[in-house]
Helix-turn-helix domain-containing protein (Halocatena marina), 244 residues
Amino acid sequence: MREFTFTIEYEYGVDPVMNVFIDNPNSVARSLDGFVTKDQFWRIERISGSVDVLDQIKRVRFDDGTCGESVTQRDCDATRYHDVLERRNGELVLYTYLEDIQDCESIHTLAGKHLPPGLVFETHRQASQHSWRVLMRSDTHVGVLYDEITARLRDGLSFRMGHLRDADGWQRDSLASLTLPAEQRTALSAAVEGGYYETPRKTTLDDLAATLDIPRSTFSYRLRQAEIQLAHRYVTDNKRNQWF
């Protein structure tokens, strides 16, 4: 397998889905997509964010009059099906299926036009960036795909090349996400980067709190809440995956 990675940058007002992420830069979406035929594709997308963000994303996705797929001036004409696979505090998992696709110039359809059947897409959305990893059996015509994408991008979108190489493993966590409030993520990141979880510890709660310029009690509380979330998610996911 080969992989082709790239990122598309969006200006505000160009795409209704990306507008939500630009307005809420701490929100993240990861998806796993499959291109079935030239007129069908599916996507499973996990979005992490506030209740308001998740409601906005669901509203846009379920609006069949809104196209959130096309990267050119031509919107996609297709029959759309959406369903909520999971909804809990801070997370929304959506299933999307498009069929009877006509006149659509999305990454899926452009890739399906030039690359061999059996394509798999992994994507990551945050702020103004939508990053893609395309897994393919052969990259013989990937240059043609690159030329068409870069030549046909609609106004307000820009393309940044990643790499083209042998596929570097399977991204097991492509749909895994854990939503933490920004202050808890900051506390957890500071603890990891500072060596708090090393043996022996390289820092203390007092030092970390001082670095973030917050009271020790506040830092300790945020870190503890983040750890609780991680522990609960680990146990829950293990129980869900016992049938594998």
